[in-house]
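Treating backbone geometry as a discrete language has practical consequences that deserve illustration. The amino acid sequence and the backbone structure tokens for this protein are reproduced below.
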Amino acid sequence: MVMKLYAVSDGPPSLSVRQALAKLELPFELVNVDFGKGEHMTTEYALLNPQKEIPVLDDDGFYLSESNAILQYICDKYAPGNELYPLDSKTRAIVNHRLCFNLSTYYANISAYTMAPIFFDYQRTELGLKKVHMALDVFETYLQRLGTKYAAADHLTIADFQLINSTMTLEAIDFDFSKYTKIYKWYNDFKSQYPELWKISEGAMKEIQYFAANPPDLTHLNHPIHPIRKINK
């Protein structure tokens, strides 16, 4: 049975899983979850993921959420030993670290500044900007200290996908991060060296840019956490 990936077209975690599946040449069915219609908030979707978050992998009835866990699972099950998720304990530890860093700090701080104000009633603040620069500074330091071509090794790993797509949201809002020279080179090297994988990110970036210019009406969403922007009609 072909795997199913329940995903959104512009969400960085969804994009990262799609890129890993593409790089490993694993067949899968892409099931679009309409965020704007609140399909992820339904009781039916909660059967797949009680957290009501996206993406979710369905591997023949085995449902797995959290994009980091999905990335690790597909590598371990379908491509054990592949350099995307190396078996060497130290290299794998660095990959795992970068995945955790992205989740806890990099994507968390960047998306709060880039994505949240597009879709919900949040403002970009000086504190939010400070957190973005702090995240960039730490990642720049990791790249400098490790001295590898990619985020966790001298070859591409699943950690790069997550970090690339977090960084992509900065480009989507025309945020200049070129002073972080290690990040800037790593990001643009990925674009040039993996154009087919970058196309997945690029398509999402164009969607984000569209929504930034045309904020979506989500007043019907009734989100339990995020404040909904009032739309004057």
Notes: The longest strand covers residues 3-7. The CA atoms of residues 98 and 159 lie 6 Å apart. Strands lie at 3-7, 28-32, 56-59, 62-65.
